[in-house]
Design goal:
This protein has a domain at 455-589. It starts with 7 loop residues before the first helix and ends in a 6-residue tail after the last helix. The protein has helices at residues 8-18, 21-26, 36-54, 58-64, 79-88, 107-120, 122-141, 144-156, 284-320, 344-376, 380-416, 418-421, 427-435, 444-456, 462-477, 485-509, 514-549, 554-571, 574-584, 587-590, 594-597, and strands at 67-69, 72-74, 159-164, 180-183, 189-199, 208-215, 228-233, 235-237, 243-246, 249-254, 265-278. The protein is of the alpha+beta class. Keywords: FAD, Flavoprotein, Oxidoreductase.
Amino acid sequence: MPNYQAPLRDLRFVMDEMLDYPAHYAGLPGGEEASPYVVAAILEEGARFAREVLLPLNQSGDKEGCLLEGGEVKAPKGFKAAYAQYVEGGWPSLAANPAHGGQGLPPSLAMVLNEMVCATNLAWGMYPGLSHGAADALRHHGTEAQQATYLTKLVEGTWTGTMCLTEPHCGTDLGLIKTRALPSDDGAYAITGTKIFISAGEHDLAENIVHLVLAKLPDAPEGSRGISLFVVPKYLPDDAGEPGERNGVVCGSLEHKMGIHGNATCVMNFDGAKGFLVGKPNKGLACMFTMMNAARIGVGIQGLGLTEASFQNALAYARDRLQMRALDGAKAPEKPADPIIVHPDVRRMLLTQKAFAEGGRMLVLYAAQMIDIVEHGGNAAEKERAETLLGLLTPIVKAFLTEVGFEATNEGVQVFGGHGFIQEWGMEQLVRDARITRLYEGTTGIQALDLLGRKVLMSQGESLKVFTREIHKFCEAEEGNSELAEFVRPLAKLNREWGEMTMAIGMKAMSDREEVGAASVDYLMYAGYVTLAYLFARAAKQARVALSESTQEAAFYRAKLDTARFYYQRLMPRTRAHKAAIEAGAEPLMAISAEDFGLGFEI
């Protein structure tokens, strides 16, 4: 079975030393509850729960999968008991509003716990995962009656939530949905249609499941302008607010998937199910975006958690596995061969995983601060800036961290060699589980269009400037620091190039809109590498400060500098390839004829 230890020391470095979370929490209304003592206790207990409760169920849940009988789904053995412990421990309510039964702690604290959950049992973590987003959607857009009925149950975890968007004939293009909502005399709606790929759509972990469903009213406009949002519970709440009559929604089948076998990914059939309108008619997509944005950050954290899990196990194996001698002479002459960690290519793979894990953690926690400010900050100007930054960073968190997360889990298998390809070690499961993260909640291509098209170009680059100005100020402040020159100088050059390249894409797109689509994925990856470069430069600065002030934990801080150097010298140069691909433009993609594709029809 794979092993896992929550990276508490690295979390403390990023939270306490680099991003100054203690001051950040103290500046939030009500943030005094998140004292360093409370935060440390939560992190340690979360680490224990992930390691002792969730990790032992990961491989067994993958092998057993879910069972569908008569429309009812049974999760793998142990999942229900683990969920009961999760609820009993108060984890679902950690960052929720006290008015709805929550503990009122900052959202960022729950996100840290989420990394541990994703690293130890991604499939299990998906059962409670969407409940937070469902609660947020109802908190922002639901009526008082809907909030009274559903929010407390979702917050305490006795009910879970889902997000029902995709249909057999449409994925991202939700304007094509066919699910219909017919008004009833009692003010409710009869929801009829089929939704697919619904994570945790049916299960036996909680006593009720609250589906948030996109559907169209009879007089709805065409396309995405005609989408409405409805809350459709599995069991209709009775007068006491407890599960009552069974609603007309059932699981028709379970998807047979490449990974995340322990989670019930369902085809959900709505047959005149009673639903209740959330928000205004035909404004459902805007309401659902509240949930979708939270889910996108959550999927980025999944990529991070799997990266960390793969790295930890690959590192342990590389220290133990004996294979060949080092090229410059034996490193362990008392043994029949050297541990494979002495070989340069194994180190390349391990350091790639390490850099993406540590860089991804910095990115998530940086974005998490923005979420805290948006949700709880008191200053209007700070909130506006945080919201702009969060909008820019969300597609990067989601897509970049899942792309490099999949790379990292593949490198983990490679470190193990043939042993990584068999089930025993659990490394191949990490790859299979990681693959979905690049797809759901919007593929990498969709996130890239959101970043370049909506967030950057539609704002005339203003959202990007908020971030690049921050990077510029950091580089300007450290320009005379010779100890940081190896980081600051290339970062400043990349930061300028980012702005110039964005302007060039915008100019080309004025005459050919295909240029945006052609450039978008490379642009997102470029943006991800530059963003991590900025955060590694900040980490290097903090490590230098710590080394100058004390000799304690010198090895930890030297490792921070070494990882930053590896990132700058071996990973950041990937930006050159992405820049070259962007500059090649749309022509190499769009000029290929149908005949060249061998399709026999025009495209």
